Description:
two-stranded antiparallel sheet; Serine hydrolase domain-containing protein
Amino acid sequence: MKQTLALEKMFQQTTGSNRIYEAVLLVENTKGDVSACFGYGGKHADSPLTMASTAKLFTTVCILQLWEQGRLSLEDKVARHVDEAVLKGLHVYKGREYSFELTVADLLFQTSGLPDYFEEGSNMRKRTLTEDYSITFAQMVEETKKLRPHFAPQPASSKAYYSDINFDLMGHVIEQIEGLPLEKVYEKRIFGPLGLARTYLPTGPEHTVPEIYYKDQRLHRPQAISSYRASGGCITTAVELMVFLKGFFNGALFPVRLLEKLAVYRRLQLSMGPIRYGGGFMQIPLRSANTLFMGKGELLGHSGTTGSFAFYYPLKDLFMVGDLNQLAHPSYAIRLVMKLAMGYKA
């Protein structure tokens, strides 16, 4: 009871900032003897929420399953699965073409050096504030080709750059291998096996896409959200996101031993704050300057630009999922999970 009250207080401190209008938090442990859920602004554990980049974990699962089945290798050249015309001119750095040297590992670990069409160039993120729009995979690739890569692909180095196109490309690779649209692959490999009845990749007007807050403005962007399929287009609930997160880390979706091979973390661009990136998921070290070196251990999982989050804190066996639904302040979700992890007494 005491710890539940402590968690609730930390949640209320975040929602009391008067920049958050609706939110939900669900915290559990593996055994199930820790379970606390808090809602705000009418949001509750079964309310639909936009996953944004937290849905990258779904794409990661599919890649890992195909890897485990021997249907692809992380060392595979992306060109093995993607048409030459799509790749040509995608990664040209200092006059040299690296497009056909990119590997699946480069994409998964965010070490491709490719720029992010969502934050750079025509800036899709800003466009989201003014209109609902649809963008195809081919258009994402063309937008990326207009931008300058940040470095040559170099998975052995310490460089990483967070870019949505890495996951969009992996989504395309998955579809080519499976011969199915991504929504069917997710259903086959994740939603069905875990019994997720309210988690989906929206494909039409029959699917609910929740509104997103930008400051105090409510935005309805079903076309845009539906476009970012492999990099952040899924809808779920806190309850089902918790089921998935536990499945991700407890071996229900792929052998746990694969996580050890993915645990090579690199610092991302400055705008990503304390986040490091491993093989398809984020790592947030808690013993760092950001916590005045008062924290211990690490958070593993993912967050999204809408304020969604799904993180596991192995040191205290704590799973934390939820949504702050605030496009203007996505960093609030990271601050909240760091506070929860450090403040919870196991």
